[in-house]
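Job type: complex structure
Entries:
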Amino acid sequence: MLRQIEGSRAVAEAVARCRPEVVCAYPISPQTHIIEALGVMVRTGELDPCEFINVESEFAAMSVALGASAAGARAYTATASQGLLFMMEAVYNVAGLGLPVVMTLANRAVGAPINIWNDHSDAMAVRDAGWVMLFAESNQEAADLHVQAFRLAEEVSVPVMVCMDGFILTHAVERVDLVSQADVDAYLPPYVPRQVLDPDDPVSIGAMVGPEAFTEVRYLAHARQLEALRRIPEISAEFAATFGRDSGGLVHPYRTEDADVVVVALGSILGTIEDAVDTVRQRGRAVGALGVTTFRPFPLEALRAALGRARRVVVVEKAFSVGFGGVLSTDVAMAGTGLGFDVATVVAGLGGRPVTEASLCTMLEDAVASRLGRLTFLDLDHGVVERELERMAERRRSGPTAENILRDIGTGAGGRS
Amino acid sequence: MTTIQAMLQVRIHGRGGQGVVTAAEVLSMAAFAEGRHAQAFPSFGSERTGAPVVAFCRIADAPIRTREPVMTPDVLVVLDATLLHQVDLFAGLRPHGAVLINTSRSLDELGILELARRHREERFITVPATDIAIEHVGRPVPNVVMLGGLAAFTGSISIDAVASAIRERFSPDLAERNVAGAGEAYRYVESAGDREVLRVAPD
């Protein structure tokens, strides 16, 4: 059913249609509206049977999801930013145990400095934890990916994280075709666990494993991810057959067929990038875009196929590895081994800074004209940076950088005035 | 008639507690009710009562892909006139742009007559939306009332679609009171003299 609906609400509706048996979460912006909506659905009986568990922290949220999943329940939670970091130990455990928990990550910057706005720093911090990580371009895709996530997670016994840009998607009201219960029931079979804590057939889960078998257990976690990589396009195709629209899959190419320059990115920024591609194409430049929907497992072959003709690839990232540069860029460079394209990284949209089509168009023109460096921070205010560097050079006790800069640009949150 | 290519972009300014975000949401729902594509989103500050808040709405006949904030609005809605001299409300306003200000005072009394004349004075209108809200809704919440004014002043959305969106968004009693308020603002603007209809061109 078509609705004009907030992204968080659309995701809550999609999750509810998947009949989760345990929902546990701790509130943190910008994820909160999803969990609030599910809480209401459990209380009113719209989502039944389902146990909604208020927990005391994100660490507890993921631990409860782990326990519920090990007991054979379909378990769901959501978090963001510092909340994800706080649950980190359990995030690794869920993946290591092969438990099919589904979690929404409402992407948000990681402090310090504390910042509630969107970027991908939180997702990049768990890149290697062993979860499947899917990135939504729109709220329609965010809602649809959750339905596919439960299917994939339970088939392959691997946890799945659906990443959607905090505020930009979670708080945006737009048109979403909500899935029906009948369609979801046809698409998503009941959960049949590979391993379950069953008093009638007891097993232990979570044994200590020493050097004699740790490598083999970890290798099999990798093999499950590779199985997920194989299944994701099929699960997306089956979704299209049931629901009548394309969502998910490995990558989304946009006007890449004849493109010299291709921009690669994750998440909602792709919409603005596609507009920029159209604008720059009108000026006669052969540019295109490639959305990476499946970030882990990383679809090396799909990228090679989509980028094979490109002369230059620009990876626009809402996060970076401090002291090095791009994160996704490294993966894209690996995918491009032997293909002969350059990879440039553009870091954009950190901590909620708007990424404008105008800035993207300028960046694309720079890329076409070979003026783009290896690492660029889009719309960086060099004056602000230089003035803080001068303060630091002037005296040893120059004080905290964030407060100095806020005082400099006049937003008044600095300690001294 | 001024025709806008493909997309109408609205920026709504107000303060925390005035329903700025809800206004953008309801406007997007009204456009949806007319079968159009719409996108509404807030400018995501830390929400505090009284703090300046901005929300955006885009309306188009085709799917909307961009996620950038509305930088060059076709329509500017100001829910709190005390923001006029505090925030750069008019940044990026397009040459044909329409400006609706919630106030019972005149542009001259607000100190922006000169500014309005430098733009196009006939594209500015004041609507006593807080007074109308107190009368009909029973609370000084001007957000939804202003959408009635927007419907009349810009012609870019029908008052019926606004009413339909209000009824979808609010409980029945609150909805009817807001529908009445929006209707009064609509009639107020219609009777306020010359206005220029602002239309989004179909693709």
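Summary: Helices of chain B lie at 20-33, 107-110, 113-118, 129-136, 143-154, 159-169, 172-190. The beta strands of chain B are 2-4, 7-15, 37-42, 52-60, 75-78, 98-102, 124-127, 198-200.
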